[in-house]
């Protein structure tokens, strides 16, 4: 058997996936028409699967809008320079939708060769036994990983094994209106970093129809608040010393963050509206709010929507105190190789992954999206240096990433029910900000439900 062929039978995959679907209420229709799944790009349309000597790689991804267009260009460039491989990139919807479709495809003939999965899908992908660890390819050809960003590559490394290839890396940052800062008597070049400083700034900025802040109720922000204070999201070394058994966002650091957030809302210096962030970006672009949170990958979109009406500033994600030992964790996604495909197809996928990680491709992706490079030499390229000079906002996420202390808190939590945990956490945030429950009670309730799901998931693995 080829060393990259799957080692676990299809029935085992099927039982594992069906059990998870039953426990967590996940369902999705498996479709038969390939074209219904998204837009095909690159040279795939022109090259028949039967073409002799050409290996086809089907890549499912979750990059939409302008980011999706950049992905299409990278795929087209790869296909043009690799006559023995053709990559067909297929957009599968949001991160959550894409992972749901991937789960449904495991053990079937419609599974892709490789798939982009967001960071929080890592534990599930490992436990699915449906993937070939990237470490196998690295070891076989002695691929040099020292060229890659240590924090990013460490996120996807569990038990000393790199399971997937990092692709798009991001972290949350503060976006603020420099013009409104000036008008409020605040230094436009010194964005607030501590909770207390942001509260004071929001209070000064709230006037004349403008609200100081508007943060979408995304679980990711709560997770980053905790990491920024050096606290771990789940037990057992953030799920890295063993399977996580307890969700810890209801601890002191999580409650402190949510209580601070609620105080901003209660004092009418921050807007509360159920939703993750799209509405806040619109309000920010219209000059109705002075500060928002969002991913660095939204930078291009935000600059474009503002259209020069005011100067956009970017700052570090806030933390409770200067003495906090943590930092922000890595967000984004990575690419996984499915082990149901032939060794030849998997090897072709690995070749494509290496191409995407090269400095030249990372530079194109970085300057056109806002995701920061996974390969260190990318920063030396003229296109990146010129972009930094023109748009200094791009540097904020990179500086924040480099300033974060490398520990298990900032590596990020690893657990199999992470998507479910996020949904329950967002419910808790909404309950607290709307006054239905106290921050402690809301987070305690969410933790209890998440822990029950963790226990059920871990039981399946035994």
UniProtKB/TrEMBL annotation:
Keywords of the record: Membrane, Signal, Transmembrane, Transmembrane helix, Transport
Gene3D superfamilies named in the record: Periplasmic binding protein-like II
Alphabetized Pfam families for the sequence: SBP_bac_8
Membrane spanning residue stretches: 12-31
Any one GO cellular component localisation term in the record: cell envelope
InterPro entries per record: Bact_solute-bd_prot1 (IPR050490), SBP (IPR006059)
Subcellular location per the Swiss-Prot or TrEMBL entry: Cell envelope
Family: Belongs to the bacterial solute-binding protein 1 family.
Protein name: Extracellular solute-binding protein
